[in-house]
Specification:
The protein has about 280 residues and is α+β, with helices and mostly antiparallel strands. The protein has 2 domains: about 5-75, Winged helix-like DNA-binding domain superfamily/Winged helix DNA-binding domain (Arc Repressor Mutant, subunit A); about 95-280, Endonuclease Chain A (Endonuclease, Chain A, 2-Layer Sandwich), CATH 3.30.870. The protein contains 11 helices and 10 strands. The protein has helices at about 5-15, 20-30, 35-45, 45-60, 80-110, 125-140, 150-160, 160-170, 185-195, 245-260, 265-280, and strands at about 65, 75, 120-125, 145-150, 175-180, 200, 210-215, 220, 235-240, 260-265. Strands 3-9-8-7-4-5-6-10 form an 8-stranded mixed sheet, with helices on both faces. Strands 1-2 form a two-stranded antiparallel sheet.
Length: about 280
């Protein structure tokens, strides 16, 4: 794809689309209605994979199937599609707010308790488990917390009580430092981090290892965090570890990335100057 297409796809992902969803939506928008077969061929993937992605786009009101046979798929007008994406996020935010207390209550009984004996590894399988484990770890922090997260985690942290626990850590005089690829869509949750004293930085187009380290001992990590929507039921695959050697490696990685990143305040001012339309170009 041309550079303009790649940039457009990146901006679509800022609105909550996965990269595959953005690729298929752009092709339908550019070349008109298509059946799954030519889409699969052009993207060098399987028809089943295209079918799954198309169904996801239909749920997001960004693609409509035809009534005829064979079924063709049509891209919804860009303005209408982005409007639907915004409304869906608003609906999900209302849902998250309603379930926030439930999740905070769950975190009190979270099974990922810290220990000083041996090393333990567990698998995190959903956003709900991830948030509960993070809330529990941050609440137990004696020294501090560092993290490198995808932009979706900014909103998740603000919505489900992680920021509230982080604020308590900061008020105790401990450190909280984080790195994220901040886009225009992330300005509000990023500013919420800064408002409570997070030391937050921006790393442009970061696609490496995502992780959290608490007290240089307890950590969560994942090579690929593919969050397609902000929902507690969203599946995810991460490792929870209670191991000083692994945590030390992650902490050293964090310091390297920290030196290469820029303050979030500078990034937010840059995005505000560009404006939403410029960031979608």
């Amino acid at each position: 794809m041309m550079d303009d297409d790649a940039e457009f796809i990146t901006r679509l992902t800022d609105f909550g689309l996965s990269e595959k969803e953005a690729q298929i939506y752009l092709r339908l928008l550019t070349y008109g209605p298509k059946t799954p077969s030519p889409l699969a061929k052009s993207l060098n993937t399987y028809r089943e994979d295209v079918h799954r992605t198309l169904n996801s786009l239909i749920e997001k009101d960004m693609v409509h199937p035809s009534l005829g046979s064979p079924t063709t798929y049509v891209a919804v007008d860009l303005d209408a599609a982005l409007g639907s994406a915004v409304k869906k996020h608003e609906s999900e935010l209302r849902e998250m707010e309603g379930r926030k207390r439930e999740l905070q209550e769950l975190a009190k009984y979270e099974r990922f308790r810290t220990t000083d004996v041996g090393s333990t590894f567990k698998i995190i399988k959903s956003i709900k488990e991830l948030v509960a484990a993070t809330v529990s770890l941050v609440a137990s922090a004696k020294n501090g917390w560092v993290y490198v997260v995808p932009s979706e985690m900014l909103l998740i942290s603000e919505s489900f009580g992680i920021n509230e626990e982080a604020k308590k850590v900061i008020e105790r005089g401990r450190y909280v430092r984080g790195i994220c690829d901040i886009t225009y869509a992330d300005i509000v949750p990023a500013q919420a981090f800064l408002n409570i004293g997070h030391d937050l930085r921006h790393y442009d187009r970061y696609r490496g290892l995502y992780f959290t380290v608490v007290d240089n001992r307890h950590c969560l990590s994942s090579i690929n965090v593919d969050i397609t929507r902000i929902s507690l039921s969203e599946p995810i695959s991460m490792i929870w570890a209670d191991d000083r050697t692994y945590a030390g490696y992650l902490a050293a990685t964090f310091e390297m990335l920290w030196e290469r990143s820029v303050p979030a305040e500078e990034r937010i001012q840059e995005l505000l100057k560009q404006g939403p339309l410029r960031n979608m170009e």
